[in-house]
Every structure is written in C-alpha cells, then in structure tokens.
Amino acid sequence: MRNEIDVVIITGMSGAGKSVAVQSMEDLGYFCVDNLPHALLPKFLEIMKETNGKVSKVALVMDLRGGELFDKICDTLDEIARKDWIHSRILFLDTKDNVLVTRYKETRRSHPLAQGDSVLSGIQQERVLLQDVKLRASVVIDTTELKPKQLREKIIQSFSTDSQKGFSISIMSFGFKYGIPLDADLVFDVRFLPNPFYIEHMRPMTGLDEEVSSYVLKFDETKEFMEKLLDLISFMLPQYKREGKNQLIIAIGCTGGQHRSVTLAEYLGEYYNEEYVTYVSHRDIEKRKGH
Predict the structure, then answer these.
(1) Which backbone phi and psi does 198 adopt, to 5 degrees?
(2) DSSP output for 49-98
(3) Does the reported pTM lie above 0.70?
(4) Helices first, then strands: H and E counts in the chain
C-alpha cells in the first residue's frame, strides 16, 4: 500500500502570521520546515517518502525570503500536485495593508522587498507577486482582526484530523462599515432587510438575542431571501466539496455587524450543522459604540 504524504504549504503576506501558523501545525503533529526554497521541495518530499510512513504530515513555509527562487513556485506546486502519493494544500495568510504597515513599524523590521523604499511599497509589490499563489490556495485566512489565539483556532479547525476527513463551513457575520472579510469565499449583503437598530430598545442588543432574531426573521422579505439563499448555498456546497475544497467561508454582512447579519449567520449555522461540520463567528459584534 502506497504511503501518502499530507503536505501543507504555508505562505502569504510577510507579517500576516506565518510563525503562529507553523507553531499550530507542529501542535497538530506536522513535521515543519521554515523558509524552504521551492526548488528543493520535490527532492525534500522524496526524502520524506523514503521514511516509509514515519513522516506522513509535512508543513512547509515558503515565502518571498527565497528571493528570485520564489518566482517559479507555481511550476513547482504543479509538479508535486501530479504525484499520486502527495496530498497537497496551500494555506495562504492575508492581512490588510494598513495593518501590515503597523506591524512592521511596531517590530522595527524592514520589508524584504522594500530595498530602502517605504514599507507600503514593499507590501504592494509582494501582493502582486503572490496573487497567483493565493488563487491556488485551499484555505485563505484573513488575520487582520485576529489575535494569535484566534488564528491558531482557525488553523486547527481547517487542518485537524477530523476536518481533513470532511468538509467544513465557516459562517461569519460582519459589518460593511468595518470592511469586507478578505478570506470570505461568498459574501451576501443583507442591508436591505428591516433594521432593528432603529427600534430604540433593540439598539444595544444583538442578533443573539431572541427578540432581535425574531424581529428580523418575521418579515416576508427575510423569509423569501432565506429560502432563495438556502437553495443557492445547498446547490453550491456539494460542488465545492467535489472540487476538493475542504472549507467554505460564507460571510453575511449588514451595516454594523450587530443585528441582521448575526441573526442570519446563526440561522445558517443551525440549518447546516447536522449535515456539515459548521462553525459560526461574529467578527464585529463587539464593535458597536466604539467598543
């Protein structure tokens, strides 16, 4: 019986959290290597194959620290994808430019592509160079709003043994006033639905409160929208699963991410929980009134 090697390529924007990702993968039992030049990847995996199953899970950080060697990484990824004894996935970590600039300033580090220019210039160049790799990623995580602990939890959700065997759905509520999540696969705008914010006693509540959720869900336009949305998502999920995607991130957005989006995210999570491994999170629920 052929021993298959599970390979996770960790890449993404410099400063987006790859160090936390490596530590998380180590905790999941992966053999981890940081900053492996892409040209050495095929030979490295051949060596791992010769361990006869002793090393079956490998996580490799590959980024722009490899300089010009990184330019042909897509060719190398295609090469290993053709090997039937390798199960490869790409974890791409992304973060908004302004947050990356702040992180570089706080650590007083220089960007690998800045070369005496501004940090922002280096970040923008890096984003262009990584765009093809990001399109190939199995899992994209936006770390803009995440603390290290939260990033670790997301990685464990995506790569733990249970998650690897199946297909999971992450449903996220958010507020458009705080920006669209970078890692969302599907984004739905529910700002057209009646807003509990304009009912004074509901204003400080959230969609987790029964009174708010009942209010949002009682309207005919909400019922019709949810019927159409469930029909669309239920059609798409098996198609994504068939194409080999192991996680789908669905983002539901309203104005502030407090009432309508939270209500519908909870509804979707409850609806799909029996059929799929489902996670529900509310990105902006605590941001109201400046908190």
Answers:
(1) -85, 0
(2) HTTTTSS-EEEEE--GGGGGGGGGHHHHHHHHHT-TTEEEEEEEEE--HH
(3) no
(4) 10, 9
Positive or negative CA dihedral for 286, 287, 289, 291? Answer: positive
109 forms beta bridges with none
**Could you tell me how far CA 280 lies from the centroid of its own chain?**
13
Using one digit for the tens of pLDDT, what is the confidence trace for 55-88? 889 999 988 765 555 667 788 888 888 888 888 8
Q: Which residues pair with 233 in a beta bridge?
A: none
- Judging by beta carbons within 10 Å of its beta carbon (0-12, 13-18, 19+), is residue 3 exposed, middle or buried? middle
Written as six digits, the tokens of 114 are 């800045």
Angstrom distance (rounded) from CA 156 to CA 158: 5
As given in the structure block, the two tokens for residue 82 are: 């053709």
Cβ-based neighbours of 93, under 8 Å, separated by 6 or more: 10, 11, 12, 13, 16, 17, 18, 21, 140, 141, 143
β strands within the chain, DSSP E: 5-12, 31-33, 57-61, 86-94, 139-142, 168-175, 186-189, 247-254, 277-282
